[in-house]
Design a protein that fits this description.
about 750 residues; alpha/beta; Cytochrome Bc1 Complex, Chain D, domain 2; 19-stranded parallel β-sheet; eleven-stranded parallel β-sheet; 15 helices; about 20% helix
Length: about 750
C-alpha cells in the first residue's frame, strides 16, 4: 500500500510540475515580433517616388536643416569662404584646394594632401549633389553638412585650425567679411555661421541637366546609340550597377563591401554594426571629371573600375564578404566602350560656380585647371535635341522587313503599340517611353515571334516604362534575364515563353501593380517568374519548370500567386524577405490553388541566395509575414511540402547581414492537399537535424497557424492551430523555442 501511495505521489508531482511549466510558459512574454517597417518599407515604385517612369525620377529633398534655410546671400558668402585660404591655420589652404571645381570638386590625387603636405589616407570625394546625401564622408561619420564643414577646418592634418575663436577674430578684422556676415545672418559673424555659409554653398552644387536627364525626360536623341546601349547594360541584370547607383542621384546612402584592397576599416570604425571594408556608395554624377577612383584612389580610370567590377571586385582575390550585387560579369570590348560612353552622359557642369578673381582676405585664390576628361566627355556627348512629335495620335508600329525591333521602338511615342511579326530576332530591345505595348504576332500555328540571344546578349527586353504591356513573345538563350522592367507602374506580362534566359525569366523589380499571366519559364538558374521589391503583384495561370526557383516573390508587399503549375524546379514557390535591399518588407501574400509537384531538380544556381535552396521543396515562406497558403495541391517533393522558416535559423545568412525583421509572423497554412512529400530530404535539411515532412516549421515567429487535416508528417510533430486558445499557443511557443535553443 505504501508503494502505491508513493507512485501516486510521484504521478501527482509530475502532473503538478507539467502544469506549472505550462502556466509559466503561457504567462511568459512571447518573443517580440519584428518591428513594423511598413511606413518606410521601400517596396514597389514608391521606393523611387515621385517618379515619372523607371528613368525619370524626382530628386530627394535637400539635407537642409530648419535653422539654416538656403538663401542666395548664404550661397554667395559661402562661395567666397570656400575659395579663401584664410580658413586654414597658415592661410595657405582653401576648401577648393582639395575640392577644385575643374576637377569635379575633387583634387585629382590618389589621396588628398593636407596641411604641411601631409598625405591623407582617403581620396577627396566630389561635392556635386552632396546636398542630397544623408551620410557624409566615405565612412558616413556625419549627417550634417554644417558639421562636415567644421571637420576639415579643425582637423590637424587638413586645414589645421586650432583656435576657432582666433579664426573668427581674423575674419572680423576684414571689413568685407564683417559686412557680408552682418547682411546674411542676424547674429553676424561666428564660427557656426561660417559652417552654415559653407554648407549653403555646398548645397548649391547641383548637377541635374546631363544628357541622361534630357533622355529620361523624353528627348531620345540626347544620348548617342552607344550611350543608350551603355545605359541598358548599366541597369541590366548582368552588371547590376543600378542596384547601388540608382537614378536620379546615382548614389545611395548605403555602405558596401566591394573588396578594394586596403587596410582601412571603413564603416566598421564608425559604427558597431558596420562591416569591415564597407564604404559609402558615391554618386556617379560628373564621375568622369573626378579621377582617380575608390576610397583610396587606387583606380586611375573608369575603365579600371569597370574591369574591377567585371572581375567580381574582391571576389577575384578570394575575399568572402563581398556585397551580393558585386558578382562579376563579362563585357565585350564594344560593351565596355558603351558603358564608358554612358558614364560620360552623366556629366553636367551647367551650374559650375565661377572661381572668384579675388577674396576679401586678399590671399591668392586657386587658379583654373585644365581637365583632359572634358575633351573625352565632349567626344562622347554628341547627342542632340530632337524634334518632338508627341502630339500625334497613338498608332500601331509594325517592325518592317529588314528593320530591327529596336528601330521600330525608337519610332514610337507614348500610346503606341509596337507589333513584331513572326520570325527570329537576335537582339536586345530597350524601351524607355511609357504607355506602350510590345506585342508579337503569332504565326498561323500560334507560335510566338522568337527573340534569341544566342547565349551572348544579356536580356531580351529591358524597360523602364509605366503602363507597359508585353506579350505573345518567345525569348530564349539570354545570359542574364528574359524580360526586365524596373521602377515602373502598371506592368502586364502575358503569353510569354522564356527558356534558358540566365538568372530570371520575367523580372519586374521595384515596380507597382504588376500582372504576370500565362507565362511559361524553364531552364533559368535562379527564379523563372520573379518579382523583386515590388508592390501588388499577381502571378496566375503560369507554368514554371526546370528552374532553380519556380516562382519567387522577394521583398514584395501584396502578392497573389494562384492557378499555376510549378514542377521539376529545385524549389517550387518562394516567398522571401532578404537583407541588404531597398525594400525591407515581405507581407500580405496569398498562395492558393496551385499544383506544386516533384520540385526535386538538382540546384544549378552558380551563386547568390538561390544557391542554398534545398532541392525537393514545394513552398518556402522565409521571414515573410501575413501570408495565406491554402487550397494548393502539394505532392512528390522529396524534402518538404511547405516550410516556414526565419532568416536566422535557415542558416542562409550571417546575423551581421540582417537589416530586416527576420522571423515569419502571422502566416496561415490551411486546407492544402498533400501526398508523398519528405521521402528523401536534401542533405542541407538533414544537417539541421530536420526530417522530411509535409510541413516543417522552425518554431519562430508569432501568429503562425497550421490547420491541415490532410498533412500526414509534421515537424515538429505538433503544430499550432488557429483553434488553440492564446494561453496554449503562448505555452507551446515558449516551450518549443526553449527546447530548440537548448539543442543549439
Amino acid at each position: 500500500m505504501s508503494k502505491l501511495l508513493k507512485w501516486i505521489a510521484v504521478v501527482i508531482g509530475i502532473i503538478l510540475v507539467l502544469f506549472l511549466i505550462i502556466m509559466v510558459a503561457s504567462s511568459a512574454k512571447a518573443i517580440a515580433q519584428d518591428p513594423d517597417v511598413r511606413p518606410n518599407h521601400g517596396a514597389g515604385a514608391s521606393s523611387v517616388d515621385p517618379s515619372y517612369s523607371g528613368l525619370q525620377r524626382a530628386f530627394p529633398a535637400l539635407n537642409e536643416p530648419a535653422d539654416n534655410p538656403l538663401t542666395a546671400e548664404k550661397v554667395a558668402l559661402g562661395r567666397l569662404l570656400f575659395f579663401d585660404p584664410i580658413l586654414s591655420e597658415n592661410d595657405d589652404f582653401a576648401c577648393a584646394t582639395c575640392h577644385h571645381p575643374d576637377l569635379g570638386f575633387s583634387d585629382g590625387r590618389t589621396t588628398a594632401l593636407g596641411a604641411h603636405n601631409t598625405a591623407l589616407t582617403r581620396n577627396a570625394p566630389t561635392l556635386w549633389n552632396v546636398g542630397y546625401a544623408k551620410n557624409l564622408f566615405w565612412d558616413g561619420r556625419l549627417q550634417s553638412l554644417e558639421a562636415q564643414a567644421a571637420m576639415p577646418l579643425t582637423h590637424p592634418d587638413e586645414m589645421g585650425v586650432t583656435d576657432t575663436a582666433a579664426l573668427v577674430a581674423e575674419l572680423q578684422a576684414i571689413p568685407d567679411y564683417q559686412a557680408l556676415f552682418a547682411a546674411t545672418f542676424t547674429d553676424g559673424l561666428s564660427f557656426d555661421n561660417v559652417e552654415r555659409a559653407l554648407a549653403a554653398f555646398q548645397r548649391s552644387l547641383i548637377t541635374n541637366d546631363s544628357p541622361f536627364d534630357r533622355y529620361a525626360a523624353g528627348d531620345f536623341n540626347a544620348l548617342t546609340p552607344a550611350q543608350r546601349r551603355g545605359l541598358a547594360l548599366f541597369r541590366s541584370g548582368a552588371t547590376r550597377c543600378f542596384e547601388c547607383h540608382a537614378a536620379p542621384t546615382f548614389a545611395t546612402d548605403t555602405f558596401r563591401v566591394i573588396g578594394v584592397q586596403s587596410d582601412d576599416p571603413g564603416r566598421a570604425a564608425i559604427s558597431p554594426d558596420g562591416d569591415p571594408g564597407a564604404f559609402k556608395v558615391p554618386t556617379l554624377r560628373n564621375i568622369a571629371l573626378t579621377a582617380p577612383y575608390m576610397h583610396n584612389g587606387s583606380m586611375s580610370t573608369l575603365a579600371d573600375v569597370l574591369d574591377f567590377y567585371a572581375a567580381g571586385g574582391g571576389r577575384a582575390h578570394g575575399q568572402e564578404n563581398i556585397d551580393v550585387f558585386v558578382q562579376g560579369f563579362e563585357l565585350s570590348a564594344q560593351e565596355k566602350a558603351d558603358m564608358l560612353a554612358f558614364l560620360m552622359a552623366l556629366t553636367d557642369e551647367s551650374s559650375l560656380p565661377d572661381i572668384p578673381t579675388a577674396v576679401p582676405s586678399g590671399l591668392p585664390v586657386v587658379e583654373r585647371l585644365s581637365n583632359s576628361a572634358r575633351e573625352m566627355i565632349a567626344a562622347a556627348n554628341t547627342g542632340h535635341t530632337g524634334a518632338s512629335s508627341a502630339n500625334r495620335a497613338p498608332q500601331t508600329i509594325t517592325v518592317q522587313p529588314g528593320e530591327t525591333i529596336q528601330q521600330a521602338v525608337d519610332r514610337a511615342q507614348p500610346g503606341d503599340t509596337i507589333e513584331i511579326p513572326y520570325g527570329i530576332y537576335h537582339e536586345r530591345v530597350v524601351i524607355d517611353i511609357s504607355d506602350v505595348t510590345l506585342h508579337g504576332i503569332p504565326n498561323k500555328n500560334g507560335e510566338y515571334p522568337i527573340l534569341d540571344g544566342e547565349g551572348k546578349l544579356p536580356e531580351a527586353v529591358i524597360a523602364s516604362s509605366n503602363n507597359f504591356t508585353v506579350g505573345y513573345l518567345h525569348v530564349r538563350n539570354y545570359t542574364d534575364n528574359g524580360i526586365i522592367v524596373e521602377g515602373s507602374r502598371n506592368i502586364h506580362f502575358h503569353d510569354i515563353k522564356a527558356e534558358f534566359t540566365g538568372t530570371y525569366g520575367v523580372y519586374p523589380v521595384q515596380s507597382t501593380d504588376v500582372v504576370i499571366e500565362r507565362v511559361e519559364v524553364t531552364g533559368v538558374d535562379d527564379a523563372g517568374i520573379y518579382a523583386g521589391q515590388c508592390e501588388n503583384v499577381i502571378v496566375r495561370d503560369s507554368i514554371a519548370y526546370g528552374n532553380v526557383l519556380g516562382i519567387e516573390l522577394e521583398n514584395t508587399l501584396g502578392g497573389e500567386v494562384y492557378n499555376n503549375h510549378v514542377y521539376d524546379n529545385t524549389l517550387g514557390i518562394l516567398i522571401v524577405l532578404l537583407p541588404q535591399l531597398t525594400s525591407k518588407i515581405s507581407a500580405n501574400t496569398a498562395v492558393h490553388d496551385n499544383l506544386i509537384e516533384a520540385n526535386n531538380h538538382e540546384n544549378f544556381s552558380p551563386t547568390g541566395f538561390a544557391r542554398v535552396a534545398p532541392s525537393g521543396t514545394g513552398i518556402l515562406l522565409l521571414a515573410t509575414d501575413n501570408a495565406e497558403v491554402t487550397a494548393n495541391t502539394v505532392k512528390d517533393n522529396k524534402t518538404v511540402g511547405i516550410a516556414v522558416f526565419s532568416a536566422t535559423r535557415s542558416g542562409a545568412f550571417e546575423i551581421s547581414e540582417l537589416d530586416i525583421g527576420p522571423t515569419p509572423e502571422n502566416n496561415h497554412i490551411h486546407d492544402n492537399s498533400y501526398e508523398n512529400n519528405g521521402y528523401d530530404p536534401d542533405p542541407s535539411t538533414k544537417a539541421l537535424g530536420i526530417p522530411g515532412a509535409d510541413i516543417i516549421w522552425d518554431g519562430t515567429g508569432l501568429g503562425n497557424y497550421f490547420d491541415e487535416a490532410e498533412a500526414i508528417s509534421l515537424f515538429p510533430p505538433v503544430l499550432p492551430q488557429s483553434s488553440w486558445p492564446d494561453w496554449l499557443y503562448r505555452a507551446y511557443y515558449n516551450i518549443l523555442n526553449f527546447a530548440i535553443e537548448q539543442m543549439g
